[in-house]
Automatic annotation (TrEMBL):
GO CC terms: membrane
Keyword Chloroplast: no
Name of the protein described by the UniProt record: Inositol phosphophingolipids phospholipase C
Family annotation (SUPFAM superfamilies): DNase I-like
Taxonomic lineage of the native organism: Eukaryota, Fungi, Dikarya, Basidiomycota, Agaricomycotina
């Protein structure tokens, strides 16, 4: 008879940007009070930008979750935090190489340190578990344009590499966060295929997400909608895209998981197996006594059952994730073909490379335009300096000074955007494109070797 236990995970985008997020203090207080009532083993928070807000949430749940980490990154922080019932033995922060443009002040993505952060916890049954928390780049939607969508694809690729590397180290992987992508989009395909992560909602609710929901509540309970729901006070009435209008919201928040690729110790024993048995959307109601929601996202929870014993359950016998006595030698090495790594499909690989190449071309063209504006600004500044002694009227002086300051600012901004940031973006894109080229060539070599 197998031993059964579970890890209960919760993820929530708190929408906690100081001065910008509405009703932030009241909502954070309400979120902390609600989380204190729940009994989760791991909580992943996104957009918890203010450290005092994090401290308030942490102190509210500290009796059950005594271990926690607030992650610093970028100019304004990562907005990411993890709280755990189990001891934290290591932490890491991986800022994404692309995250919007510095000139896009309204979007703000470039100024924050969006990243893939993680903790390694010591679990009494599973051993080392690496828990990731992330918030991917927002702009681009489901359909692009490509130069916006490419930044999120770079995020997804970097995230999937980190998750796969963790599994290759022999660790179980749990990943939560706001991925800003619906399940059918390319970033999620990259993560599913390359990192081989299972989607908790899809495992627990094998329903067709392409079917329109009869009501907003059905969209939540049947399809896992966590954002842009008409039942959310901050989504109701705001402009939303055609997908959210048709399906009464979007599923942008995920709890993902996978088994390790190879065992660290005692390879002669079957490894415990993670399997999602339940996944639900929480905090869909209004804050008690107030007319607004807890956040502009709903929370997501998942129960990951741990199955151990002499036999791996038949429905979990996935060759990517599970080993038996016959799959590993005495030294712990996997026998050939026993646990092949998951790989990107040809369609995903091709479409990703096309999107990145389109973004590279757009970035080069934009950089040339910005450097042209920079050169014109220099010409205007020289003309202003030469012409300043011949101003016809004294009242023009203040206007002249303000105009000069504006042209100087524009020149500096265009130089930074066109030369410094433009080269940064192009180099980052080229790095990923070349990585994928090498990856594609390796797949072709492997396919040729197996056929030979």
């Amino acid at each position: 008879m197998s031993e059964v236990s579970a890890i209960h995970v919760l993820s929530l985008n708190c929408w906690g940007l100081k001065y910008v997020a509405k009703n932030r203090t009241e909502r954070i207080n309400a979120i902390a009070a609600e989380l204190a009532k729940l009994e989760h083993d791991i909580i992943a928070l996104q957009e918890i930008w203010v450290f005092s807000d994090y401290e308030h949430v942490r102190d509210s749940v500290v009796k059950r979750l005594p271990y926690s980490k607030f992650f610093y990154s970028g100019a304004l922080g990562s907005g990411l935090a993890l709280l755990s019932r189990f001891p934290i033995i290591a932490t890491s922060v991986h800022p994404y190489s692309l995250n919007g443009e510095p000139i896009d002040v309204g979007g703000g993505d470039w100024f924050v340190g969006k990243a893939a952060v993680s903790i390694v916890i010591s679990h009494p049954v599973l051993g080392q578990v690496q828990v990731f928390n992330t918030h991917l780049y927002a702009k681009g939607g489901e359909d692009g344009p490509e130069y916006n969508r490419a930044h999120r694809l770079v995020n997804a690729w970097e995230f999937s590499k980190l998750a796969r590397q963790a599994a290759e180290l022999g660790r179980y992987v749990i990943a939560a966060g706001d991925f800003n992508s619906i399940p059918s989009t390319l970033p999620m395909a990259l993560i599913r295929e390359y990192a081989d992560l299972s989607d908790s909602w899809a495992v627990a609710h094998p329903t067709d997400p392409t079917i329109s929901s009869p009501s907003a509540m059905d969209a939540i309970t049947q399809f896992g909608v966590t954002a842009d729901s008409p039942l959310n006070s901050y989504s109701a009435g705001k402009p939303i895209g055609p997908y959210a209008r048709k399906f009464l919201g979007k599923r942008l928040d995920y709890i993902l998981y996978r088994q390790p690729i190879r065992p660290l110790t005692r390879p002669e024993d079957p490894l415990p197996v993670l399997k999602c048995t339940d996944c639900n959307v929480l905090l869909t109601e209004k804050v008690p006594g107030r007319p607004f929601s807890f956040s502009d996202h709903f929370a997501l929870e998942a129960t990951l059952e741990i199955r151990t014993g002499d036999q791996v359950p038949v429905e979990l016998a996935d060759p990517h994730n599970v080993w038996s006595n016959s799959s590993a030698g005495a030294g712990g090495a996997m026998s050939p073909g026993s646990a092949p790594a998951s790989e990107l499909s040809a369609d995903s690989l091709s479409t990703t490379m096309q999107a990145l190449a389109a973004c590279y071309r757009f970035s080069r063209q934009r950089a040339r335009k910005e450097l042209t504006i920079f050169a014109l600004c220099l010409v205007v500044l020289v003309a202003l300096i030469v012409g300043s002694p011949w101003l016809p009227h004294a009242w023009i002086n203040p206007i002249f000074i303000l105009f000069t300051v504006f042209i100087a600012w524009l020149a500096t901004t265009m130089f930074y955007e066109g030369f410094l940031y433009g080269n940064w973006e192009c180099n980052a894109l080229m790095n990923v494109i070349e990585e994928l080229e090498i990856y594609k060539n390796n797949l072709e070599v492997q396919a040729g070797t197996s056929q030979g």
